[in-house]
Amino acid sequence: MSRPGANSDGGGARHDAFSSNSDDTAPPLSNEMTVEPRFVHPEAKEFFSNKGFLRYIPLFGEAVEGYGPRPVISIAMSYFMCKGVSHYLIRLSLFAMLTRRYGLDGTTYQRLETVVALGWSIKPLAAIASDMFAFFGYSKRWYMFAACIIGAPLSLTYGLMPAVASSGQIVAALLFFNCFTKAVVDILLEGHYSRMLRRVPGPGPALVSWIWCFIMAGSLVATVIVGPLGDAGYPQVAAFIAAGFQL
């Protein structure tokens, strides 16, 4: 009759030994407590060591931390000048140029505006060509350089065309190819920073938002320029300024 008691005592001893080995004061393990190390670009460390206050600029600080200052600034400025100021100078001055300077009616203006906009719709062709044929060993750099060199004279010619109705058809063709040159820069830059986002995806939304801020800033600058020029009767001057910004 004493064996059940002995077994009970032995079980209690074993339970006490197990309890004494467990550490009830240790914090519980959780996946939420695991923090992945945050990547900081080597150039960003040096950049922020001298200019630490720039880290707190919205979007800019996060983008530079992930990709470094040079690509973040250069891509943003390329978009500001090409797709921002230059593109919107041409786009916003088109109505005044075709209707007032060349004397075209509204129907003809709408038809020619559609032709001009088609230059942006064929930009995937530039990406295909650059992937298939490297230009001096690079698939993007020299294509963008050539696009800017070709596009600027097209803008300049657009502004220098005679102020007669027969110039409208030629202007539409010039601006079609001008828009295509800007589309080349646009899609090849997109391909470049898409690879950056694939390597370091964390600050990707900040970089894309940073780029679009500069595009919108460029459109605002173009609006401020085109308005007074159109009111003064010199919309062609916007084309000359657009050529300079595309270069």
From TrEMBL:
The main place the protein resides is membrane
Topology in membrane: Multi-pass membrane protein
Q: Transmembrane residues, as ranges?
A: 142-164, 170-189, 210-230
Compartment(s) where it occurs, according to its Swiss-Prot or TrEMBL record: Membrane
Q: Which GO terms describe its cellular component?
A: membrane
Region annotated Disordered sits at: 1-35
Q: Which InterPro entries match?
A: BT1
Supply the alphabetized keyword list: Membrane, Transmembrane, Transmembrane helix, Transport
Task: Please name the Pfam families in this protein's record.
Answer: BT1
What protein name does the entry list?
Answer: Pteridine transporter
Which lineage is the organism of this entry classified under, starting from the top rank? Answer: Eukaryota, Discoba, Euglenozoa, Kinetoplastea, Metakinetoplastina
